Amino acid sequence: MYAYILRRLFMLIPVLFGVSIVIFFTLRIIPGDVAATILGTDATPQALAQLREDFGLDQPLYQQYFSWMGGVLTGDFGESMRTGQEVLPDIMSRFAITFELTILSAFISWIIAIPLGIIAGIKRNSKTDFGVRIISLLGVSVPNFALATVLILVLSLSFSYSPPVGYVGFFEDPITNLQILLLPAIVLGTSMAGAVMRMTRSSILEILRQDFIRTIRAKGAKERVVIFNHALRNAMIPILTIIGMQIGVLLGGTVIIEQIFSLPGLGQLVLTGINQRDVIVVQGAVLFIAFVFVIINLIVDILYSYLDPRITYK
Amino acid sequence: MREFVQRLIDDKIGLIGFIGILVVIIIAIFAPLIAPYAPDKMFTEHVLEGPSGEFLFGTDQFGRDIFSRIVYGAQVSLKVGLIAVGIGATAGLIFGLIAGYFQGKVDQVIMRVMDVFFAFPDILLALTIVAVLGPSLTNTMIAIGVVFTPVFTRLVRSAVMSVKENEYLTSAVAIGVHPVKIIAKHITPNIMAPFIVQITLALSGAILTEAALSFLGLGVQPPDPSWGVMLNASRTYMEFAPWTIIFPVTAIVFTIFCFNLLGDSLRDILDPKLKR
């Protein structure tokens, strides 16, 4: 098992290396002079040359890449071309917000989706099943930004609600923090619930058709025992896959939601960086998100073995 | 084929989705006939007016008819959907067929490159590509196409690998049929079922991603009538002109919902395990 985890961790190295190459060179295709965009049209040639020198933009591309990667490997993601501040501390403090939002959203979606998916699966083709299928499809079809906008509209019209300005950390004031994050988390959570609900339903259906369930039923086990002790445990594997994938989707989804709710998270950092052409910030933040994404996928893969002893790792 | 159509008709959910998509397609094709006004025509004396006989869905902040913009917006959404998925599906089919059929080193190289693209959340990758290429309709389609390529590649590759095990293929290889002929005549038709299901689901994903990118100001650019652009622009006025937001949201949700209904139903119909 440990050997497997180690091997998988080693396999992440080429993937992350590839990711860094893709990000770095893609961002260098941006047309126009980054220095001129940053300093504005009335910048003197000396100022432009100084900025290029400061950020190594006057060096050949491969050299810029290696010096960036060298920094990344030692925990130095470079400095923002706009503010001059170090990128990594900014990424870390913003990641805390994005991470909390992601986890809260995931949690909300599980509370909604897993019980409903199970009920729909058990009562296949019933009215409940039909209702759950429609709700879950609607959940998948409503884009989170549309849901967020409509929700803000409804709340502002009926309760004069407006999205909170500013952000308070969980450890500073947990209650205010949750007040700020609850609405965005509900939006992200419900938009993710559809997919989890569908997966839960279809995996329950798949498992209930199998021979071992028939055997357990034939032995006279109570339906509750069949469902909770046998079917659900086996159905958890595909459900876990989708949950793992969805956490990645959530990480991406936060880009839009943070923008709508003015949350200073990682997604907003990327978006501001893109709008301001701050390539150092964008490449650092995107690399970091990709890193978290592959680590989550790895954790999901490892969790499989705990749930399904048939999966052996070599 | 007849059995397939019959099963689609029997499955009410899929049929509803199919009809809904047909409606959107008809609206997009006949937009100039259906829309009462040009999408960018401004009625400066009718700014932010509610729905009326003259303006069915009301007007926006420039006095443009929202109904006409939604109708023309259907063209944008379907165009992005079809071309973006076309790019992703074609590239994925080619890479997947090559990787799955030849395996070995070629497979390793293709799949490792795809792994790299899988390491990005979809919207983030699309966002970065559009940011680099510059926000526009064409670049949005390219970005979404690139984002969808790995999904199609992985799907086609695994379908090819399972089809390849069949005896008729082993025999075809044994009697020396050219690989291109084997891929074109024997493998491709047999992997179409999952491929078509994925296309339907990807269409809804592409329409959603376009709306999201346009919403963020990185996709289709104003004054082009994209539903995402309309939604973003109306956020400032939504409290006193809710119609500016309700109709674009309904259009987006309806279209994506119909594609999902059809995709879901096709998956059930084409999945031999669920045939009962």
From TrEMBL, chain A:
One of its GO terms (cellular component) is plasma membrane. It holds the Pfam family BPD_transp_1_N. Its main location: membrane. It comes from Salirhabdus euzebyi. This is Peptide/nickel transport system permease protein. Belongs to the binding-protein-dependent transport system permease family. It comes from the Bacteria. Residues 95-304 form the ABC transmembrane type-1 domain. The chain crosses the membrane at residues 9-30, 101-122, 134-158, 178-197, 239-261, 281-304. One of its GO terms (biological process) is transmembrane transport. It is a multi-pass membrane protein.
Automatic annotation (TrEMBL), chain B:
Keywords: Cell membrane, Membrane, Transmembrane, Transmembrane helix, Transport. InterPro entries: BP-dependent_transpt_permease, MetI-like, MetI-like_sf, OppC_N. Residues 74-263 form the ABC transmembrane type-1 domain. The chain crosses the membrane at residues 12-35, 80-102, 123-148, 196-220, 240-263. GO terms for cellular component: plasma membrane. It is a multi-pass membrane protein. It is found in: Cell membrane. GO terms for biological process: transmembrane transport. Belongs to the binding-protein-dependent transport system permease family. PANTHER family: D,D-DIPEPTIDE TRANSPORT SYSTEM PERMEASE PROTEIN DDPC-RELATED, OLIGOPEPTIDE TRANSPORT SYSTEM PERMEASE PROTEIN APPC. This is ABC-type dipeptide/oligopeptide/nickel transport system permease subunit. The lineage of its organism: Bacteria, Bacillati, Bacillota, Bacilli, Bacillales.
